[in-house]
Structure formats: C-alpha cells, structure tokens
C-alpha cells in the first residue's frame, strides 16, 4: 500500500491510502487523426491531470505510468520506487489550438522542477520530474525551454527535470482517472491538488478553458 501525505495550511498531516486493485494496460502512442500526444511526469498524476485538462486545445488527459521497464506496472508496484516508472499523464491535444511548446510551458508552470524525486509532500522516484519527447524537434523544444528558464533565473535552484524519449505509457487503474473532479472533498485533493492548481492559474499566462 502506498500512502500519500498531504500537508495543509494549518500544518497538520493527512494520510490517504490507495489500494492498487485492477489491471493496467499499455496505450497506443499513435494519436487519432487531427490529434497529437504529449507525456509528462510532474509528481502526483491527480494534480497533473487536472492542470492539463484546463488548457485550451487539450481534448483528453489520461493518468498512468511511464519511464520504466517493468511490464504491466500497477500503482502499488510504482509506489515502491523500484520500477523506474513515474506517475505521468498522457495529454491528447489539437495541434491547431495548442502547440507542444505551449504544453511544455504548462509543464514547467505547474510544478517545481528543481526538487529531485519529490513534488510537494510526495517523495520517491515515482514523483520525479520528466519531460518525454517523441522526436528530435520535441527534444529541442524541451532543452531550449530549460535553457531559457535557467537564463532568466525563473527558479532559484537548478532544474533537475529528466529529458527522456517516450517509449511506452501504461494507463493507471480506473479510480485514478479524473480523480480531482470525482473526489473534490478528498483530503489530499483539498490540501494539495487544488491549491497547486490555483497557484498554476495565477502564474500561467496562456489560455484556459472558461469552466476551469
């Protein structure tokens, strides 16, 4: 069992346990006509999914696992931090409405890329920061973005985000999908996911959906 620890403003500790029942499956990395895909890891995928779903041009976001080698990883397995996988999101988007470069901007605006194997209260390699690329152009965009952020001293500490080729993506168990929307009163959601999302909205300069 993996435990998420949520620190709220009053500094009390909330423990939320999740059992990893059910199977996972590898998703196709071939988008439908008119769509494109991008994959990012930036800590808890509950938070990431909610962030990317709010961006204009994004049609769907799926929570899952990427970056490892173990076959058919589960939430419980990934939570041991021994599989190489990180909690990730697969973003389906309309490239006519939002670019891959803009999604990379969203990625860096919605988490702290300077904390190694940690994001907020969650620690371990499964919560590390990774920007995945599918081709040389995407790799170049990520590297140029990191170079720009570093040059402009956007973050006080050095960026530790990994840059990795995208080789596979396993969809997480059903109960993880749209978790924030389905569980608005969950203690972790109230104490971590929603505050992180609100901070993103205050700092991000791009277009968000009107209902976000």
Descriptive overview:
This protein is of the alpha+beta class. The protein has one domain (2-203): Peptide methionine sulphoxide reductase MsrA (Peptide Methionine Sulfoxide Reductase, Chain A). The protein is built from six helices and eleven strands. The strands form three sheets. It has a seven-stranded mixed β-sheet with strand order 3-11-5-6-4-9-10, covered by helices on one side. A two-stranded antiparallel ribbon has the order 1-2. Helix 1 (45-53) crosses helix 6 (187-203) and helix 3 crosses helix 4 (136-151). The model is unreliable at 1-21 (pLDDT under 50).
Question: Which helices and strands appear, and what pairs or packs with what?
Answer:
Layout: E1 2-7, E2 13-18, E3 25-26, E4 36-42, H1 45-53, E5 58-66, H2 75-78, E6 86-93, H3 100-109, E7 118-119, E8 122-123, E9 129-133, H4 136-151, E10 162-165, E11 170-171, H5 179-182, H6 187-203
Parallel strand pairs: 9-10
Antiparallel strand pairs: 1-2, 3-11, 4-6, 4-9, 5-6, 5-11, 7-8
